[in-house]
Specification:
27% of the residues lie in helices and 23% in strands. The protein is an alpha/beta fold.
């Protein structure tokens, strides 16, 4: 049986250095429920260390949380890697960490807070999470797919860190599953307003770094359950699965 899932698949936590300290696991879940969301994904910059805590907090409150990472390629393009299981996401994190150099300077880039599901601070991540990895966009997409994940090109309507803004176009042989537009572009008009994305399935998400931004925009998926396979089918319009515009 197919159902509608109101989803915000791009939310950061207090682990992302450009995010607010209030983006703790419990507060993210509480605000997501207040916004009427059925499904969210946690996608911090180049890390998944807070994902498990948000998943636990969400399970306690009946909100489905998909684990993910927003990875910055060597071309400085942001790509979302979404998965079904935390273990798989942490495998992707290991791959990212092996290709991420530099140490964070909190006074310059911001603090990177690791927290548990009770909003207790466990420590700080010392890596330069805001930096670009040594991975190319093809490497990121290929590795994501090899682990059974979903690959979306982040905020393609933005000049900063969007694939079109960085490269000028989306390579025709880049096997992304879809693209994401920000709140600046309505989902129903995105194909016409953002040159070069017409042939790609399109979603929208908040890219929330602050509590008030959670659920600012969302995508409604008509799927049987909140899983990567079901979302992939919706992106392709297969077996009755679809995105509501």
């Amino acid at each position: 049986m197919l159902k509608q899932f109101k989803a915000d698949l791009h939310i950061h936590t207090c682990l992302s250095p450009c995010s607010d300290w209030d983006m703790s696991p419990k507060k993210i879940i509480r605000r997501s429920l207040d916004k009427g969301l059925d499904l969210i994904a946690i996608c911090d910059h180049n890390t998944a260390e807070n994902v498990g805590a948000v998943m636990k907090a969400g399970k306690d409150q009946g909100l489905w949380v998909l684990p993910g990472i927003e990875i910055c390629s060597k071309e400085e393009v942001h790509i979302l890697a979404l998965f079904d299981e935390l273990d798989t996401t942490l495998t992707m994190q290991d791959y990212v960490y092996a290709n991420l150099t530099g140490n964070n300077k909190p006074e310059v880039f911001g603090y990177q807070i690791v927290a548990n599901e009770h909003d207790e601070v466990l420590g700080e991540n010392p890596r330069l999470l805001i930096g670009a990895t040594q991975l190319g966009i093809y490497d990121i997409v290929e590795k994501t797919h090899s682990l059974g994940g979903l690959s979306l090109s982040s905020h393609v309507d933005r000049t900063a860190y969007g694939v079109i803004g960085q490269l000028g176009f989306i390579p025709s042989d880049l096997k992304i599953d879809g693209v994401e537009v920000s709140y600046r572009v309505s989902l129903d008009k995105a194909g016409d307003e953002v040159a070069g994305i017409g042939k790609f399935p399109c979603t929208t998400a908040s890219d929330a770094h602050f509590l008030d931004d959670i659920g600012k925009v969302w995508t409604v998926f008509v799927i049987a359950q909140p899983s990567i396979d079901e979302i992939q089918r919706a992106l392709r319009g297969k077996d009755g699965r679809r995105i509501m515009i």
